[in-house]
Amino acid sequence: MAKTKTSRYDVAEHLRTPEEMAAYLEACIEEANGDAAFVAKALGSIARAKGMAQVARDSGLSRESLYKSLSGERSPGFDTILKVVEALGLKLHAEVK
Hints:
Elements: H1 18-31, H2 36-50, H3 52-59, H4 63-69, H5 78-87
Helix pairs in contact: 1-2, 3-5
């Protein structure tokens, strides 16, 4: 019997358009239940899909700090979130529940 090769799924490989990125972020925000690190990790996946170096340049943050902030291991500051969202060409908005 042949061995099956598997590889780790990386959502960043499947986020190709701004619309897909926005839909993914929206879904993650809905699923997060207040977990800021979960949302940060979603932003990290989107940033990797767009190109972390480009996002770093556009946000004015270093690549290294972006990787750490958007790893999902900690909750980044809101100022970092705002800079990353802007650099990704996305927009946050609020609506009534």
